[in-house]
Amino acid sequence: MSRPLRVRTSDSFELSEKSLSLTWVSYVCLVVGRGFTFKRWLDLMVVKLLPKDPLRKAVQYYLNHWTALTRFLDDSALPLDNNFSERLLRSLALGRNNWLFAGNTEAAHRTAVLMGIIATCRLQGVEPMAYMTWVFNRLGTRRKLDGHSASDSTPAAFMHQAV
Questions:
Q1: Of 51, 72, 80, 133, which has the most beta carbons under 10 Å away?
Q2: Rounded to an integer, what distance in angstroms lies between the CA atom of residue 121 and that of residue 115?
Q3: Where do the H-state alpha helices sit in the chain?
């Protein structure tokens, strides 16, 4: 039988080790500003648990990555999670099967470049089709830029010119 673990906060409450969810505890302790309490609990638990215990591995992960996991507390501009990045990568992961049939290596490279341009447009808030039309009309099929620098042909430059 596991004995309850007392976590000291302004409102004292008890958690049993078996019903403990590391995600929930980390959210409560970090977001409420009690990161030091959670860190102290981690330090105590890592000593008590056996090395092969899955909970010990999770606790060890938190301790090894403590600085990175709490960085959002120092900089309010940082998000709490990486859901935005995950959503962006999802479309690439879904399309990976289709890209197996690009034809050849050069075609796959061109597809990757176009996908990068489209992703950059979306991050900049630029309509990809409008940007591609603008850049192809501007540069045409010339290999030389004829007085245009590469930075004059980016989605950010298009956005500034459109305004």
A1: 72
A2: 10
A3: 22-31, 35-48, 54-64, 66-69, 83-95, 105-124, 128-139, 155-162
CA 106 to chain centre: 30
Query: Is the pTM value of this prediction over 0.85?
Result: no
DSSP letter assigned to residue 62: H
pLDDT tens digits for range 120-152: 898 888 999 999 998 888 777 665 656 667 778
Q: Closest by alpha carbon to 120, among 161, 163, 88?
A: 88
- Cα separation, 38 vs 30, in Å, equals 8
CB 35 within 8 Å of CB 52: no
**In whole angstroms, what is the distance from residue 79 CA to residue 67 CA?**
15
